[in-house]
Amino acid sequence: MSQSLRIGLTGGIGSGKSTVAAILVRLGANLIDTDAIARSLTLAGGAAIDDIRTAFGAEFIAPDGALDRARMRAAAFTDEGARRMLEAILHPRIGGEVERLAATAKARVLVLDIPLLVESGRWRSRVDQVWLVDCAESLQIERVMHRSGWTVEAVRAVIGQQASRPARRAAADAIIHNEGITLEQLGHDVESLWLDAAAPGQ
Length: 202
Prior knowledge:
Layout: E1 5-10, H1 17-27, E2 30-33, H2 34-41, H3 49-56, H4 69-78, H5 80-104, E3 109-113, H6 117-120, E4 129-134, H7 137-148, H8 152-161, H9 165-171, E5 174-177, H10 183-197
Parallel strand pairs: 1-3, 1-4, 2-3, 4-5
């Protein structure tokens, strides 16, 4: 197995991708979380804050100096231009930080947690395999409403901005089914995939 094997982990909101990522870390993967990178870029003093203020206005910056996430979420999900403008600010910085972290990683397998891997069109060439965490849309909605207190309309708005379930499944090299199973079974399924990927000679 190449030392630089990269697995792109993706899945729709509420699919359980973060749970699978945590299992992979326990198994020995080096995780690079693009959502965490995006959050760090938009904290007070983050590298993207000045450009966001310039592009969107001071009202998109919270009193503590960080991005006003609720305001930006509302803008991005109702205005295609706003979403693309935000992506133009964040995506190059996220990509650069991913490469920096990958260059210093010691683990034999890198797992890149990329929620919008399929949607972006640019990440597929930067990973060796795509692993999809998959479940029914109704279960996605139920999970997000339970954990975040969002309305069903808010969750559906996010899902509507993401790739369709068939499109994600078509792009995947491996599908992790996270529906109708226990956490223990999910862990077993992820471990089986992991052992195959991490096997000598892969």
